[in-house]
Amino acid sequence: MGIRSILSKPLAAIIVNQQRKWSSRPVETQQKVFNKLIRQAKSTEFGKDHDFGNIHSYEDFKKQVPIRDYEQLAPYIKRIIDGKKDVLWPGKPVYFAKTSGTTSGTKYIPLTKDSIPNHLNSARNALLNYVHETGNSEFLDGKLIFLSGSPVLGKKGGIFTGRLSGIVNHHVPAYLKTNQMPSYETNCIEDWEEKLEHIIDETLPVKMTLISGIPPWVQMYFDKIQQKTDKKIKDVFPDFSVFVYGGVNFGPYRTKLYESIGKQIDSVETYPASEGFIAYQDIQHEPGMLLLLNSGIFYEFIPADEFFAENPTRFMVHEVELGKNYAVVINSNAGLWGYSLGDTVKFVSDNPYRVVVTGRVKHFISAFGEHVIGAEVEQAMKYALEQTKGTEVVEFTVAPNVTPASGLPLHEWYVEFGKRPVDLSAFEKLLDNKLQKLNSYYEDLIVGKILRPLKIIPLKQDAFRNYMKSKGKLGGQNKVPRLANDRSLADVLMTYGNI
User: Fold this and answer.
1) Are strands 289-291 and 372-373 parallel, antiparallel or unpaired?
2) In a domain, 478, yes or no
3) What's the CA gap between 466 and 444, in Å, rounded?
4) Which end of the chain has the lower number of beta carbons within 10 A, N or C?
């Protein structure tokens, strides 16, 4: 056992003890964060514009600060880019995290000296929770790979700018630098396919113990290794024991990933965003991720079915109900105020508060009022895969077809299979029946013959990969939308050919 694994255990005990204290006092913890945020930001431009000096309660705050998305916050961001300080938070941001926007093109999310520890410490604490619970710390002595974006930074308005994962790469603690993979030079390669070849060359000869990344890109890494070695991952990396992932629901990818690995291994789910590290899995055998209430973010939750209302209800964390979908709104020491993340979550525990990510507020299908969300199509796919042994899915997305060439409208599932089901019609029926059970509105439309049962459109190998490559979004932290209420993605995918 090496020095890292030895020292990690007492540190893990300290972190978990601290975590138990703040998570057992959610109201007090969030109130402290709220008070500190308002106090520190009251002299900023935003604070003055919204009368922070006279905000003494959450009720005051709701009256003064509306819900915003990035486009509505952009005028303040522009002032920062133009060189002004004390705009959203005291001083200037240390970085801008660059990410894709929906209507504004590139988004520039501020990272401040105060907000950076949220990203770094949360990632560390996720692993320390795992160490404390399982006793497995030896993975810290091996090589750890983080499949991420390039650490090469540009500048915007004189502020260092890059992908969040690339920015974080500059802050990896010195004690982990020596076992971090890939090398800095390889990580700087922008082209994902070229980068992947270099990553494989560097990692094949070493003792890999932890692999982290978004599941579809980790799967591509595994596929390339298997093509080169003709071995299962467990035989290539016999010491590989921990898989860390985030960004997408693991369920649809689980079967194929574990088939590639050749054995079950422990996994740790995380919920990082450019705007803040929201939650991580703190226990192995219970659903959900621990909501990080003490890390510079004050949370608000809007019932998902009210999100697009003119005056939606806004709740603090202790006011939410279990099992209900909420849109996530954050206020943070990065200078984000009433900021809609665009994600929806469901609480699965309130002691402590744990969430599962259920989708995106703008990613749903409701062509006929069914309002099918990402979590429902993912649960349906997970169920169908469990009932059809041997079937593997690489990637999929769902879109409505309101005006088919013949017959009733329907939902079309665009699926790239790793291994196709023997009976595609039976697989479709499993999906449709499960979706009806998950969504009563969808069931009513099927029973009432407003919609006909879903249809799978099998796509050729690498269809999604080629689509992402054409958009310049191959690899890194990029994700395929799980579903949409229009056919913009579906129609493009058809150009890559169906079987």
Assistant:
1) unpaired
2) yes
3) 37
4) N
The number of distinct structural domains making up the chain is 1
The widest CA-to-CA distance across the chain, in whole angstroms, is 67
- pLDDT of 104 strictly over 70: no
Reported confidence tier of residue 488, pLDDT bands at 50, 70, 90: confident
CB atoms within 10 A of CB 189: 17
102 pLDDT band (50/70/90 cuts)? very low
What number of residues does the chain have? 499
CB atoms within 10 A of CB 244: 23
In sequence order, what are the beta bridge partners of 455?
412
Place of tokens 């109900």: 321
351, part of any domain? no
Domain residues for the domain of 378 are 364-494
Instruction: Read off the CATH number of the domain in which 477 is found.
Output: 3.30.300
Q: What pLDDT band is residue 103 in, cutting at 50, 70 and 90?
A: very low
142: its two tokens = 């091996």
Q: Would you say residue 358 lies in a domain?
A: no
- Residue 50's identity, in one-letter code, is H
CA contacts within 13 A on the Cβ side of 71: 6
Q: Is residue 335 part of a domain?
A: no
CA distance 346 to 359: 10
pLDDT tens-digit series, residues 168-213: 888 887 777 788 899 989 999 888 888 889 999 999 999 999 999 8
**Highest mean pLDDT out of 101-110, 189-198, 451-460:** 451-460
Tens of pLDDT along 290-310? 999 999 999 999 998 888 888
Token pair 């298997």 in the structure block, residue: 226
pLDDT at 498: 65
Distance CA 411, CA 418 (A): 22
**pLDDT tens digits for range 124-178:** 999 999 999 999 999 999 999 988 788 899 999 999 999 898 898 888 877 777 8
Among 179-193, 394-408, 421-435, the range with the most confident prediction by mean pLDDT is 421-435
